[in-house]
Amino acid sequence: MKLNAFLCFSFLLTTNFSASAETFSALDAWKELDHNLQTHYAYLDDFKDYQQTRQLFENKLNNLDSKQAFIDLSQAYLRHFTDPHLNLGPLNEEDYSVYPTGADMYVEFNDNSALIIDVKRSSDADVKGIKPGDKVTRIDGNTISQAIQDVMQVPLSQLNKAQKSYALNIALGGKRYQKREIEFQRDTKLATVELAASYDAINALGNGPKVSYEKIDEFGHIRFNNAMGNAQTVDEFKAALKLLGEVKGYIIDLRNTPSGGNTGVAEPILGHFTAAPSVYQKYRNQTGSVQFNKAELKDALTKPAKQQIKVPFVVLAGRWTGSIGEGMTIGFDALGADAVIGAPMADLLGGIKRLVLDQSNAWVEVGFERLYHVNGSFREDFEPNIIVAGDMDKNGKDVALETAVSVLHSKTKAGQKLVRKHPTKF
Length: 426
Prior knowledge:
The chain has twelve helices and 17 strands. By secondary structure, the protein is an alpha+beta fold. Among the domains are: 105-197, Pdz3 Domain (Roll), CATH 2.30.42.10; 206-345 and 382-411, 2-enoyl-CoA Hydratase, Chain A, domain 1 (Alpha-Beta Complex). Strands 2, 3, 4, 5, 6 and 7 form a six-stranded antiparallel β-sheet that branches. It has a six-stranded mixed β-sheet with strand order 8-9-10-13-14-17, sandwiched between helices. Strands 1, 11, 12, 15 and 16 form a five-stranded antiparallel β-sheet that branches. Strand 6 (180-186) and strand 7 form a beta hairpin. The chain is globular.
């Protein structure tokens, strides 16, 4: 009798615990996510098909019976906004790698294939011989259409070209910490390569210097190695200036900053390029009570730092220039860069904050801070004033770096006075 009673009591406990653990309201979870997006996301109105997509996913999400299923489908929903800063977690090994950190090539949807526009230098895609101009035809065995639909969870016909391209770039990054198999076409020939997990190269980079430097002709080339959130980067930048010695110009290379960082690192570096406190970007914050377009437009300032840069300088940017890397690029432009050279940047929208989603045990990161160039244009609209291949051309050449050297030579040729361009005034 005692044993039977114990077994019965144990069964009741297990049943009650399971019922409690599985208690989940998809409707409440959707309302919470939807409210947070509408209240805090400063880029919502930029999504032209927002209401249609919102209705579609509201119907899908309200029929789910578990928190994990809700998280998985919500991630697909947010990808429709094509904003790499708009992320939802927690993330697991079945999730896609975060873009652009997890990307080693940049593609655009073209005639039912993925046309490779750029390949990240020294990535596994580069090592395995993939080049701009190649066309990806399969990703992990899936056709291009299948790969896009897996990422977005809607039929191809419901997506515009920008969404298809965005989905392809996410698909090519693969699942977190998992190898990838890529089939691609060059001319009329097909080839298949296995690529390492896309985070491997980024993680390895973290074990090296935060800043690399070299002399090219009479110029200092300083490259940031995806550590714009690490205070050591500031120290290494100062050391690079000192160790390079006297130069006639600088090439500031922001092409490997996909993971972003913070202003605590950016502003001390920018300070070397101004002799007085200067505005390097502007911003408006969206809050629960104030939309960004009704908020006060504020200035982001940098203060002078030693050693002062008094010679011409140019900036390199591209597909893997992300977040604070984009902020520094427009900041350098405002502070008098002689040229910004490269490809359009990664378009990580705004300054972000993380909001807790209690109903689904999740979180969402939203761009609540709308960012502007000092001339009043949106940061995401800025492009280099000299457009060339960002990391490499179809022959693997670094034409951006070559162009930078050429521009500096033209600024410092014999008989021309070496004078910095003045910061932009507005």
